Fold:
Amino acid sequence: MQDSMFAQLLFVHSLLRYVVLADVALATVLSALALRSLPEWRPLHKIVTVAAIIVVDLQLLLGVALWFRSPVVTAARADMGAAMKAPMLRFFTVEHGFMMLTAVIAIHIGYGMAKRAADGARAHKAVAIGFGLGLVLMVAAIPWPMRAQLARPWLSLMP
Ligand code: HEM
Structure:
């Protein structure tokens, strides 16, 4: 019997990924467009980047909570040597969390530099690069349905 707390965490983590990707992509595109035209830092840019930081941090926290409750990770931690040789166990125990953490750090660096930037052009450049890098890393670290041994559904529903 799958523990219901884990099932709820997995559902929210699975669903929130779309909000995270959409918000980080929007922030990246808005800043890239601003760099090509009028690089002013407007309230819209602040709202979108702050919202991105909030959902990314929430997803990170949910991920850490999942890591401690996941039957997959628990099985891997019982024999880490063997788990490192098994692609799916290695992915959910190490690679996914590590790449997502790197993505979150890149997004926070971009946001921090934008906040301290002397002008709009520098702020948009920091967001376009930091959030853009974070986006690419997150897309690469998601177990999409077409990823052979790592495949997960488009959305993990609660049993
Ligand atoms: C911050 C960006 C993150 C995104 C966008 C993300 C996205 C996802 C997605 C889409 C899944 C598959 C859910 C499903 O089965 O439908 C997943 C599973 C998982 N994530 Fe994340 N994740 C993120 C961060 C993290 C972090 C930082 C950790 C841990 C340190 C983590 C731990 C896990 C674990 C353990 C599972 C699988 C749990 C299981 O089924 O046993 N995630 N994640």
Summary: The mean pLDDT is 95.
